[in-house]
Specification:
Structural class: alpha+beta
Radius of gyration: 27 Å
Number of helices: 17
Largest sheet: 11 strands, antiparallel
CATH topology of the largest domain: Spore Coat Polysaccharide Biosynthesis Protein SpsA, Chain A
Distance between the termini: 49 Å
CATH class of the largest domain: Alpha Beta
Helix content: 25-40%
Strand content: 25-35%
Number of strands: 30
């Protein structure tokens, strides 16, 4: 018997509906070593949920599995029903029903999954259990097969951390305490870029702590990958962020997927919103596209479009939407699994420090093999949402690395780059975000230096200079709600209002007030609200001297004040940069494209990470 997936009990009470649903006669009870569901007569336990559904279409398409069955540990008398649902269909189909009497916990009951799970009728299946005796209990369940694996799988798990000791310790501890994972061939490589962890904190043989330079996430992941490759025992690798809330079953499910795989593919774990645990933020994403507001995608070289974005999976009907595959371009490194073969043929990640390293790495896997990036439903983590944080220096890496990523594919012409970057720059200037505007300029300038930037710059020193530059304009500050006179807006879900066309035109012609005389400017604050599904627009700032920016999930407020010399100066500098940039654009793009093999090689990374110096 080989277990494919387990029925999971919730570890996070505020996300319980992602695991199980109970009628009035059923309740969850936790003991020290186990959990169980107790039921009274006619009480119903349903696994019609995200984590405990079985997504037939994905397993039929990507694995060699044929015969599957459920195994359940029950005590009492029960009626067990197996249901199937399909994409965008309202009615569920009963595909099996069976009664069981005098069940004992020490004897598992078996329910075969009908052969139709590999047919065109496949969809998403789940069990519902009704108690027929006065009392009963459910203790454990899984989906299994008698089929032997096609191949043996060993997994190198690589997590990069920077001064988030509590997060990474909790993640490692969760993996080590999962009894089912103890029988799997795996090892955890914890790469500590902040050098704040001690090796005696990870005494287990399954864990290796690697102290590393602060070379960002891409440097940390690559450092761990190099170490794992040197051991030459792993068939697959998993990149996993340190600050996630992990469901260890997501790691367990990787093993049968790769043990029975029909082809090579990467697994992109989905991301749930850590603040709103039922909200699926992303199940893979598209590159260089954004939503147009009408449900379609439009081209934008500096954005991404998260797929299945903001789905509330408390609503089980939304779970069926996950059955539709959308061919994502990439999976993020909060949970991204791939094969040794992929690394051997495409090389290591790019030395991006942070931002877009996961996009480029995924794109290279997809482009080289034609292999899919698969966001398997039921494999997911919780991660802090991006609307709640906005470090200014991020903007440097976002701009620079987008430009490099496009150069590697020759997918961006100069006029499009100027068009989209100018639009982004104006938005920053219009809300007096001068520090972010400086990051855009610096990112473009450093891109134009070509790959020599990566070969000759020390990443730690470069990052320190970028962080310093991101704080250069003192007209911007971050303050606590309690320190400001203005009250935050009450309606966090307010939608963007339409502004008169003449107001937008005046805003553009005057750099949103930078060119207006002082007597036309108001002393009132403009207030912008950024949420998970809405970002208010710059016309609200027109004729204002100060803007307060509130972010959902963030207790701090950005306070930006207008500075005419700074805003006008940045805009003039940008015009000078783009006039010069057109001359070298084609040659710089070619330089980056020709340097990919070098920049993703073990030889380059050994020098970049100063591994020889660390060894000596």
């Amino acid at each position: 018997m080989n277990i494919i997936s387990r029925i999971q009990f919730t570890n996070t009470p505020d996300a319980s509906d992602l695991y199980m649903k109970y009628s009035e006669g059923a309740s969850l009870k936790f003991c020290e070593e186990y959990a169980e569901i107790t039921l009274t007569k006619n009480g119903v336990l349903s696994f019609n949920t995200y984590f405990n559904s079985f997504y037939e279409t994905f397993y039929a398409k990507y694995t060699e599995l044929e015969s599957l069955y459920y195994l359940l540990k029950l005590e009492g008398d029960f009626q067990v029903s197996l249901y199937r649902e399909h994409y965008e269909q309202e009615n569920r189909e009963l595909i099996h029903k069976e009664n069981f009497e005098n069940c004992q916990l020490q004897e598992q009951i078996k329910i075969l999954l009908p052969d139709s799970w590999r047919s065109e009728d496949a969809g998403r299946v789940y069990l519902e259990i009704m108690c027929l005796s006065e009392r009963g209990s459910f203790a454990e369940g899984c989906i299994a097969t008698a089929q032997n694996p096609v191949r043996e799988v060993s997994l190198g798990i690589i997590s990069c951390t920077f001064k988030k000791e509590a997060y990474i310790k909790k993640t490692v501890d969760a993996i080590l305490k999962d009894d089912f994972l103890q029988d799997k061939k795996l090892k955890i490589f914890v790469v500590d870029n902040g050098k704040t962890l001690n090796k005696d904190e990870f005494p287990e043989q399954q864990v290796e702590l690697i102290l590393n330079r602060n070379v960002g996430g891409s440097g940390g992941f690559t450092r761990g990958l190099i170490q794992a490759l040197q051991e030459d025992v792993f068939t697959h690798f998993l990149f996993m962020d340190d600050d996630i809330l992990l469901e260890t079953e997501s790691i367990y499910r990787l093993f049968p997927l790769y043990e029975y795989a029909k082809q090579d593919f990467a697994v992109a774990g989905s991301m749930f919103d850590l603040y709103k645990k039922h909200i699926l933020y992303e199940a893979g994403a598209l590159y260089a596209k954004c939503f147009d507001g009408d449900g379609d995608y439009m081209y934008n070289p500096f954005t991404i479009a998260p797929l299945k974005n903001n789905l509330n999976l408390e609503n089980t009907a939304n779970t069926n939407l996950l059955l539709s595959e959308e061919n994502p371009d990439y999976g993020a490194f909060w949970f991204f699994a791939f094969s040794r073969k992929a690394v051997d043929e495409i090389g290591l990640p790019m030395p991006f420090f942070i931002k877009l390293d996961d996009i480029d790495f995924s794109l290279r896997i997809k482009e080289h093999f034609g292999s899919p990036i698969v966001p398997f439903p039921g494999i997911a983590v919780w991660h802090e949402p991006f609307y709640g944080k906005n470090p200014v220096w991020d903007n440097y890496y976002i701009i620079r690395n987008h430009l490099i990523t496009h150069s590697m594919r020759n997918s961006l012409n100069y006029m499009d780059a100027v068009k989209f970057l100018t639009k982004s720059l104006l938005h920053k200037l219009f809300i007096f975000d001068y520090n972010s505007a400086e990051m855009l300029l610096k990112g473009f300038e450093d891109y134009m230096k070509g790959p020599l930037l990566m070969e000759s710059s020390d990443p730690e020193m470069l990052h320190a200079s970028i962080v310093g530059l991101s704080k250069s304009h003192k007209s911007q500050s971050i303050q606590s709600n309690s320190l400001l006179k203005s009250e935050p807006p009450n309606n966090s879900g307010a939608k963007k209002t339409k502004d008169p066309a003449f107001k937008k035109l005046l805003g553009l012609l005057t750099l949103n007030g930078h060119l207006l005389p002082s007597f036309l400017l108001s002393k009132d604050d403009a207030i912008l609200w950024i949420t998970s599904d809405n970002m208010e627009w710059w016309p609200k700032v027109f004729t204002k001297k100060r803007v307060l920016i509130f972010r959902e999930g963030n207790n701090s407020i950005s306070q930006n004040e207008m500075s005419r010399p700074v805003g006008i100066g940045i805009f003039i500098k940008w015009l000078q940069i783009i006039l010069k940039g057109g001359i070298r654009w084609s040659s710089v793009s070619s330089e980056w494209r020709n340097a990919v093999k070098l920049l993703t090689s073990t030889e380059f990374w050994t020098k970049y990470l100063k591994l020889n110096e660390q060894s000596s």
